[in-house]
Amino acid sequence: MGKTEFSKLTNSEFAIKCDGPQITSSNGILYERDNETLGPATYYVVDTERWAVSNVGYFSGPNNAWYTSSSLSQFTNTLDSELFQTARLSPSSLRYYGLGLENGNYTVSLRFAEIAFVNSNAWQSLGRHVFDIYIQGNLVLKDFDIQKEAGGASFVAVQKEYNNVQVSQNYLEIHLFWAGKGTCCVPQFTPTVSNSPPSSNKNRTGLIVGLVFGVGVVSFLAVFIVFYIVRRRKLPTNDDEELLGIDAKTFTFSYAELKTATEDFNPDNKLGEGGFGPVYKGTLNDGRVIAVKQLSVTSQQGKNQFLTEIATISAVQHRNLVKLYGCCIEGDKRLLVYEYLENKSLDQALFGKRTLNLDWSIRFDICLGVARGLAYLHEESRLQIVHRDVKASNILLDSNLIPKISDFGLAKLYDDKKTHISTRVAGTIGYLAPEYAMHRHLTEKADVFAFGVVALELVSGRPNSDSSLEEEKIYLLKWAWQLHENNCEVDLVDSKLSEFNEEEVKRLIGVSLLCTQASPTLRPSMLRVVAMLFGDIEVSAVTSRPGYLTDWKYDDITNVTGEGAADTSHFNSSTASTSIVGDVGNSLANASKPMIGDTIKQGR
């Protein structure tokens, strides 16, 4: 099982993710999907005819027609765990072909990880994947054992690279051949030994009575001990579902473990407070620094359903999304465990004390990273998630100032009777798309609108509304349109930027004005936004202001009290943004002025 890359020395390359959806790795390599059903003795040629895969199948034993395996574990020795969470099995013989290649020398990179035979006390863990690797018919690696190569550990990425592979007939063949070595399959055992006592003509009454009495006493003691242990553990009565079919150990944490990590949820470790609940910084025993979110949302979900939702969100991974390590479920406690981001949130970096130096190139890269993350959520992830609350405080920065979108996919953790899509609006004033605020119509285009606002904030270095400014500049979108209409877009640029790329500024502002059009159909998809930011396609011209800017008056302020607050997860917020979670559709539909909600509780 593994991932395959072909790269030609003359700049021609492509990569295959052996089973699973198409993804882009942390170093920018696009792995094409290989999730076709492969039964025994079958082959598949991709639509582009760039590559093909051929599978022989098992020599004997039960047949898994998909010949795939999956795991929700996090992998070490790689920045891209999602590459290995689904994998193509090589039960006996598996071949990959690069087709229509130019003749010449190539570099072939093969990536493997053991996920079928995991380290445990079970007898199945004794299995081993041992096989030979052939490239262009030549044996390049004999008796390759993935787990042995990884130091005896599962879930560890292993890479093998071969240079100067000769292609002379316009194709490349990679062959993984079991050849009768290692473990081809896991047998299923059925007990065949009878437990009946041996027959005898002699009278064994006394022996039988003694055995029955002894077994009865031992059974009673065993039941009593088990009952005592269960009572001592005080297991909850409202969450008694079994976690069937889920490898829970890979992404669940005990409450005691998280309590220790956060020093008993010490207020000094509190990072923020939001609509989903407080967030604390912690350190696990293995040294990982984490952000622990205590969910305060009302949920009627049972343990199994909740855990399934978290496992699903955990599987959505991208370099521009905050990584969810797992969760804790004990009694009525619901906690999420995220990676900790050193440089906290974008709104703090832009509008706070500005301890970080965000020059223009960094800001443009941040904008591009956010666009890529949203494009993945909308169109590349198999779940196709709409975030609903894209804003500067939900964009976090790692040590290298790479942006990561947080709090995606949490909508289903709410009570089903209060779903945001059907009855409630959840978001932040200033970032809300008009069709979502007014008509509760939620699509990915609501995220596109919010992205446009965030992009303008990156250009200007100011929040989307600021009542301390002169009247014409209070509302960022209105001011941006005024400058655009007067051909003065560059006047929007943050005065603290001593240098900037004027072409990139105009392109980014143009994209922002497209993203914030009143009609969702006029807004581009996030994939198209990425292409426009790269300069691969032209930015369409916008000629007139959206209706929500021309129809509303800005000479007054009306307060709306929301039921929730913006989530300042993983960071100490130094600024306040306005967030609402409530039924505001009718109010906004009749509004003649902008609506400002309650200020959130700020982080320390």
TrEMBL record:
Residue intervals passing through the bilayer: 207-230
Species, as recorded: Quercus rubra (Northern red oak)
Chief place of localization: membrane
GO cellular component, one term: plasma membrane
Domain Protein kinase: 265-535
Membrane topology classification: Single-pass type I membrane protein
Keyword Iron tagged: no
UniProt xrefs under SUPFAM superfamilies: Protein kinase-like (PK-like)
GO MF annotations in UniProt: ATP binding; protein serine/threonine kinase activity
Name the UniProt record assigns to this protein: non-specific serine/threonine protein kinase
InterPro entries on file: Kinase-like_dom_sf, LRR_Rcpt-Like_S/T_Kinase, Malectin_dom, Prot_kinase_dom, Ser-Thr/Tyr_kinase_cat_dom, Ser/Thr_kinase_AS
CDD domains: STKc_IRAK
Catalytic activity: L-threonyl-[protein] + ATP = O-phospho-L-threonyl-[protein] + ADP + H(+); L-seryl-[protein] + ATP = O-phospho-L-seryl-[protein] + ADP + H(+)
Subcellular location: Membrane
Cross-referenced Gene3D superfamilies: Galactose-binding lectin, Phosphorylase Kinase, domain 1, Transferase(Phosphotransferase) domain 1
Keyword Kinase: yes
Domain of life from the UniProt record: Eukaryota
Enzyme class: transferase
Enzyme Commission number(s) from the entry: 2.7.11.1
Keywords: ATP-binding, Glycoprotein, Kinase, Membrane, Nucleotide-binding, Phosphoprotein, Receptor, Repeat, Serine/threonine-protein kinase, Signal, Transferase, Transmembrane, Transmembrane helix
